[in-house]
Amino acid sequence: MIVSPLDYRYGREEVKAIFSEESNLGFLLEVEAAIATAEAEAGIVSRKDAEEIRKHANLEHVKVEEVKKVEREIGHNVMAVVKVLSRVSGESGKYVHLGATSNDVTDTANALQLKKFYSYLVDDLFSLSDVLYEISKRNKDTVMMGRTHGQHALPITFGLKTSVYLAEMMRHIERVEESRKRVVVGKFMGAVGTGAALGKDSIVVQSIIMKNLAIGEENGPTQIVDRDRYVEYVSLIANIATSLEKFATEIRNLQRPEIGEVQEPFDEAKQVGSSTMAQKVNPVVSENIVSLARIIRGFLVPMHESAILWHERDLTNSASERFIIPYISILIDDILNKMTGVFKGLKVNSEMMKRTVINDDLALGEAYLMALVNMGYGRQEAHEIVRQASMEVRDKGGMLIESIERRTGKKMKKLSPLDYTGNAVSITESILKDYEKMVVRRADHH
User: Fold this and answer.
1) Among the options 274, 416, 426, 430, which is catalytic?
2) Fold of 102-146+158-267+278-357
3) pLDDT tens per residue across span 210-223
4) Catalytic: 56?
5) DSSP 8-class letter at 432
6) 274 an active-site residue?
7) Where are the domains positioned within the chain?
8) Which of 149, 311, 445, 446 is catalytic?
9) What torsion do the CA atoms of 434, 437, 442, 444 make, to the nearest 10 degrees?
């Protein structure tokens, strides 16, 4: 019986595979093999025994169903893995899990999962950023109305809008890369973090394990890897989700018929917008992104709560983390890819954008204010003149410049709102250059 929508509706298969039951067992076995190998390198067990354990620490020899059967009998998931691996490893099985506690294995396995997912996450962020780069470059001169409080404000360019999104994504890339060293961390310090079972050898063994697995090691363990690391990860993913919801909300707003400046991709040949209103073209992907982003952020509080444990550890974090880490990882990958698709196929109605700007004479309010200051008026005096003139235009119609001229008795130069975009183009170009440098650095790093 399938219950979770992740199983049948959301998420890419290759990412869901990282967090599947089978993959989780595979990572646990990889850690058990790494423990035996490290203990052999440290001279604690023989290389022959370590090799025998490593040879059998895989899904070919340790089956999910067999582990689950043992777990039902003994009521302990990690010990079930240990028992099955020990049995299939023959005489060498007596050295499986030597000096370890359960969370040495599970937390290190979590680190391996996240290590693998981080590569997908970074690729996702760059894929979206690439699309934002292209759309910003194409539309750096596309004038549109800037809006504040949901009202017309001053002209901007669509390229500036999307380049601001690009700058935001670049910061997310930096955060993700920076967080990796703190989040992808394992441990081998036993039941209360002292490594007492193997004495001083524990420190050596932990170092070898983490080096061989290419992950960081916890420098201040309890029974577990410190959960501030997971809090950082969940907070980071929630932050990215918030950006995506913001982008998607903007697209939904600009797609409203009364604005009509953009439209997310819609397959007019086949796609159905409504079961009854056949004429509808709804921004359903953007709405889906918003919905899933809210689910991701919903896990922030449970993760923070899961970091507050009694003494060196209790079990109150265990169940919640089984949901939190896989769900937010799968869902952020899902909505990043959806957001990339939306921007990639976005219809930009530049003519409607231009028409909206031209048709709103009040968008020149600030420009005329500055013109009055240049003519010798004080800033506050100029502000009041433009304010009164604007209220008159709103009430009676007409041109803003004419209303201002009536109040001042002076002829003014007629301005075009299409020319009042300030540094929009240069700011966009600066962000584009910053992204080009980031792409080069990434290529050099790889």
Assistant:
1) 274
2) Fumarase C; Chain A, domain 2 (1.20.200)
3) 999 999 999 999 99
4) no
5) H
6) yes
7) 13-98, 102-146+158-267+278-357, 360-446
8) 149
9) -170
